[in-house]
Design goal:
By secondary structure, the protein is mainly beta. It has one helix and nine strands, in the order βαββββββββ.
């Protein structure tokens, strides 16, 4: 049985559906990159952008949509879920990270 502390991140069906909508009718497939960088108001911050795959990336998804995670960011995203949120203030891809000890108000910055 795998150690739950080393499970890769998951991508929600809602996030994959939104990626499928973004890619629908497009000539060039868009991949969602989720990375962790130093900085932000809590020590680390998420970088979420469209990018092309690199050989060392972990690719999670299917033909409808794919999330890319680089090997440096992967340990910070163990057991996390990449989701898509629609709220009154806007819609966006979000990271639900059980490893984060605290997050700031913007939800893009966290500490371990």
């Amino acid at each position: 049985m795998p150690d739950i502390l080393t499970l890769p991140p998951k991508v929600s069906a809602r996030a994959l559906q939104r990626l499928a909508e973004i890619n629908h009718g497009s000539d060039e497939k868009k991949f969602l990159r989720v990375a962790v960088k130093g900085g932000g108001c809590s020590g680390f911050q998420y970088e979420i952008l469209f990018d092309q795959p690199r050989p060392e990336d972990l690719q999670i998804g299917d033909d409808n949509g794919t999330v890319l995670i680089d090997e440096i960011s992967l340990p910070f995203l163990q057991n996390a879920t990449i989701d898509y949120s629609e709220e009154l203030i806007g819609s966006r891809f979000v990271v639900i990270n059980p490893n984060a000890k605290s997050t700031c108000g913007c939800s893009l910055s966290f500490s371990l």
